Amino acid sequence: MSPSSMPSVDLLGEQIASVLADPATTHGLARTLRTAAKEIALHRYHHASRRAWPNGRIDDKPDRVQIGGGGHRIDGFFNIDLVPPADLLWDIREGIPLQDDSTVEIFSEHFLEHIDYPRSAKHYVREAHRVLMPGGQIITGVPDAAFALNQYPGPLDASDETIERWYAKRDCRTDINTRLDLVNLVFRDQDDDPTYTPHLWAYDHEKLVQFFTEAGFTTVEPWTFDPSMASPKRRWGSVYVIATK
Ligand SMILES: C[S@@+](CC[C@H](N)C(=O)[O-])C[C@H]1O[C@@H](n2cnc3c(N)ncnc32)[C@H](O)[C@@H]1O
Fold this sequence. Notes:
CATH architecture of the largest domain: 3-Layer(aba) Sandwich
Order of helices and strands: HHEEEEHEHHHHEE
Structural class: alpha/beta
Shape: flat
Mean pLDDT: 91
Strand content: 15-25%
Strand order of the largest sheet: 3-2-1-4-5-7-6
Low-confidence stretches: none
Bound molecules: S-adenosylmethionine
C-alpha cells in the first residue's frame, strides 16, 4: 500500500512495526499496537479515496449500494467497503460518500456490529437516511443477540449446531465450547484476529427497530431472507430488518 499523505501517520506506522518486531514487547502492548497498525492501513485506504473525492461525495448516483460486503458481491449493487475488493474503499465511520436523496436501496449484512456504537453507528444510520431517496429502503442483517441469549438457559445439545455452524471454519474449537462462549461471540467475535475489527455492539430486532426509528425511518419491518441478495451462510442466527425512509 502506498504511504499516506500524512507523514506523521507514516512515521507512526514505522515505529509501531519496529516495536512489534521486538520480542521483548509484551502481549498487551503488542495487541494494542496491532489494532493501531490495522487502523493506519485503513486510514491509508480511506484517504487515498478521499483524495479523489475531497468533498466526501462521489459523482455517481448508484441506485443500489452494498456496504461492508467484503467478498460477497451482489449483481447490480455498488460495493463500498474499507478494504478490497470493493468498488470504492471508504471508511463508513467517516460518513457515506453519496449525494443526498440519491439511492434507492442500501444492503448490509454482518457489518453494523463491527462499527462502534453509539458514535459511528448513529452517524451511519443518519447518513443512510440522508442518501436514500424518499421511499428508499435499507436492509440490515446482523448476528441476532437474542438468538444466542435464548440458547444460554437451554441444554448444551441445542447449542451444538450453532457452535458447529459459527465456528466450523475457524481454528478455535478448543476455546469455544459452551453456551457462554456463544454469548461472548455476539459481543467479541474476531477479537482473536488482529487483522479484523471485532464485534463492537450487539443487536436484536427490538434494538434495530429503535435504531432506525430514531434516525427518522418511517417503518422498520422484518426482512424476508432473499438468498439472491443475502449470503446463505448468514441466514442461521441472524436478524434482518428493512427500514423505509
Ligand atoms: C464480517 S465482514 C462481513 C462481510 C459480508 N457482508 C458477509 O456477510 O460475508 C464485515 C465487513 O465490513 C467491513 N467493514 C467493517 N468496518 C467498516 C467500515 N468502517 N467501513 C466500511 N466497511 C467496513 C469489513 O471490511 C468487512 O468486509
